[in-house]
Amino acid sequence: xxxxxxxxxxxxxxxxMNRPEKHNALNTTLTQALLxxxxxxxxxxxxxxxxxxxxxxxxxxxxDTSEFRSLGxxxxxxxxxxxxxxxxxxxxxxxxxxVVAAVHGNAxxxxxxxxxACDMVVAETSTRFGYPELKHGICPAIVMANxxxxxxxxxxxxxxxxxxxxxxxxxxEWGLANHCGDGTNHxxxxxxxxAQKWATYSTHxxxxxxxxxxxxxxxxxxxGLECGHDTNVMMRRFPRNG
Length: 242
Prior knowledge:
- By secondary structure, the chain is of the alpha/beta class.
- It contains 10 helices and 9 strands.
- It has 2 domains: about 5-200, Alpha-Beta Complex (2-enoyl-CoA Hydratase, Chain A, domain 1); about 205-235.
- Strands 1-2-3-4-6-9 form a 6-stranded mixed beta sheet, sandwiched between helices.
- Strand 1 and strand 2 form a beta hairpin.
- The longest helix is centred in the middle third of the chain and has 20 residues, at about 75-95.
- It is globular and about 55 Å long.
């Protein structure tokens, strides 16, 4: 059984994590498959947008802790696994194609990190989103940077230090989801609707918009305006079709 299902719906790639019996916990195999699929989507001329979802009862329950003991016994193995995890979280903001997450069930730890690494998030109302790592004697390490970046210090520390879980409505209220709704299929269809809208736009314009957005997020106003100026000049050379 493939740990990641890739469904191509016209110009949209739907990536579905496929370890339902483990609530799509991220072992090395699934994490590698995600990285390779996202890289392939970024390079594929027939892909204009990506939906990330999970098969079964959950989006993703986080890291597969059954790997921790074997990795912890070998420094090189632990280092390689950390490098792989970091690359997956880095690729979302550098990928030219936009990605929307369709989140349901558990989105915990690394799974929560995957969800908010996407450019947009649609969450099912009963989603359980949070960072329970301290309860398991580990630290929300690589996922912490993006959460702090998006949510701010106080609310981030509340989530990572108390293990508080948010439902889909609370995710929307906290700015961690763009929309929420009832039912897994509704959430997936809503995410597909967003991806389909992206797919109607010029790939050059979408890519430039996403690239400029992630540059501006890390810049002050004046530096951001300079970046916008450069993109404004560049966009006048975009092809009018595609």
